[in-house]
Specification:
six-stranded mixed beta sheet, alpha/beta, 17 helices
Length: 481
């Protein structure tokens, strides 16, 4: 459990104490509805909602401290004094920096944690989940929940970890250069994983090389082997088919004294995959071979050939930490699947739906098509897809790749939702020979649902995938309703 006195919070964050409080802080909340006894409520001033306005409600719910990003009213000061709740004023009114500093202090206090940082363009969440399950075979694990992987979510992940945890797995996302440098300085990973370097956020970063540099920033804050608090030699795990693996190793990891462990299908990989097969539901069975010639065979409960790489990365970390590999692999094979990520859903008299509506990139879209076409299906294989965000100037070209890939797959109906990006997918699919009779265009999710819901048969298999802003999760729910 988190435990800070008010003075320790102020010292760690350089916040000004406006009203003293005697209670300790045992949890942190940024949503007043999640405030419980002894919470520290951090007031974020958003464009639509100002967290400072909810400070009185947080005090009423038992908060022991409020971190304000605006000046308190006379009534708020009186209420805080009456309830024994401390009021802090955040330095420079920067709530994000406040959280980062507090999380860094909690990480420093828990130097015994073995922390694994996970980043990459695609597969972060699956790899994080596999790591959490696998490391759980060796001890107590705390891991990122939901999509808490940004400059706010990562510190909240650390602050919700218990001092008694042995392992902490932090999913670390980024939209711009420099963000992972900030996060890595707070998380101080002992071990790290970069799943791949794709095209997610290329609109912000400009090129895949720039994305690779931004991902490699995770190395900057890793604990070194000569760190007196370090409990394991620093290692970063990469897939051997990552075309930026050498770039990351030579330009970043080696310079900082961090070893690189490569996994994949080649004989020289630290953890090698052999004899990979997919069953009728698209679930992969794979044999892993380790450097000590130890072998194990596992069937995963996550569909698609692409998840084998995520499994390899997770098992590489498991091996380096000396955790029982069979126990870890078994735990991973039984782990619950993350919602809206290749989640197969069914309902009476409705088609099976592969709900992968949480997010999308060109790479993950191709992987989802592969899953759709590898699963058994007595009816039609149908893909309902939408636009991909943050592709910048490369948007038309990268959306076109998605359409071209779809045209090469045995898809019976391709429904595309959205605007210009969707147009680019459709144009490329038709150019590459996809039949116009099997392609439908829709401006939005509701239009697609209104038209398609009535034509689906129970034997059909329907993939639903797009970037989150398209809202195809609503389509997936509507199809099964």
């Amino acid at each position: 459990m988190l435990q800070f006195t008010i003075s320790e919070v102020a010292q760690a964050t350089a916040a000004e104490v406006l009203v003293e409080g005697s209670n300790v802080v045992t949890n942190v909340a940024i949503d007043s509805r999640e405030v419980t006894q002894n919470s520290l409520f951090v007031c974020f001033a958003g464009e639509r909602v100002d967290g400072n306005a909810y400070a009185p409600a947080a005090i009423e719910q038992g908060a022991s401290a409020i971190a304000l990003t605006s000046d308190p009213s006379f009534d708020l000061v009186n209420l805080a004094r009456e309830r024994g709740c401390a009021l802090l004023r955040v330095q420079d009114r920067d709530a994000t920096e406040f959280l980062l500093r507090l999380a860094a202090a909690w990480r420093t206090r828990n130097a015994h944690w073995v922390v694994v940082g996970v980043t990459g363009s695609v597969g972060k969440t699956t790899t994080k989940d596999m790591l959490a399950a696998g490391l759980g075979a060796g001890g107590s694990v705390h891991a990122t929940k939901g999509n808490y992987n940004n400059l706010v979510g990562v510190p909240l992940t650390l602050l919700s970890a218990d001092a008694n945890n042995e392992y902490v797995v932090c999913e670390m996302g980024m939209d711009h250069a420099g963000e992972l440098t900030k996060l890595s300085a707070v998380v101080r990973p002992d071990l790290a994983v970069i799943t791949n370097v794709g095209t997610s956020h290329i609109g912000n970063l400009g090129s895949r090389e720039a994305i690779a540099k931004a991902k490699a920033e995770i190395c900057s804050g890793m604990r070194r082997g000569d760190d007196p608090d370090s409990v394991v030699a620093p290692i970063i795990a990469l897939t051997d088919d990552n075309d930026f693996a050498s770039f990351i190793e030579e330009g970043f990891a080696s310079v900082l004294g961090i070893s690189v462990s490569r996994v994949g299908y080649r004989d020289n990989c630290a953890v090698q995959a052999r004899d990979v097969t997919l069953d009728d539901e698209g679930m992969p069975t794979v044999t892993l071979v380790f450097p000590d010639d130890y072998q194990l065979t596992t069937t995963l409960d996550v569909p698609g050939m692409h998840v084998v790489s995520d499994f390899l990365l997770a098992m590489d970390i498991v091996w380096h930490l000396g955790i029982d590999r069979d126990a870890a692999a078994k735990a991973i094979s039984c782990m619950p699947r993350t919602a809206l990520r290749l989640e197969v859903k069914t309902a009476p008299d409705r088609p099976r739906v592969i709900d992968d509506s949480y997010n999308a990139s060109p790479n993950s879209m191709a992987g989802a098509f592969d899953v759709l076409c590898s699963m058994t299906c007595e009816g039609r294989r149908i893909a309902v897809i939408g636009e991909i965000g943050e592709l910048g100037e490369d948007s038309a070209r990268l959306h076109g790749y998605v359409g071209a890939y779809a045209a090469a797959k045995p898809i019976d109906l391709l429904a595309i939702v959205g605007g210009e990006g969707a147009d680019a997918i459709a144009e490329a699919a038709l150019t590459m020979g996809f039949s116009p009779d099997k392609l439908e265009r829709f401006a939005d999710c509701q239009a697609a649902l209104d038209t398609l819901r009535g034509i689906f048969d129970p034997d059909d298999l329907v993939l639903v995938k797009a970037s989150r802003f398209v809202g195809l999760d609503v389509f997936a729910k509507g199809v099964l309703a």
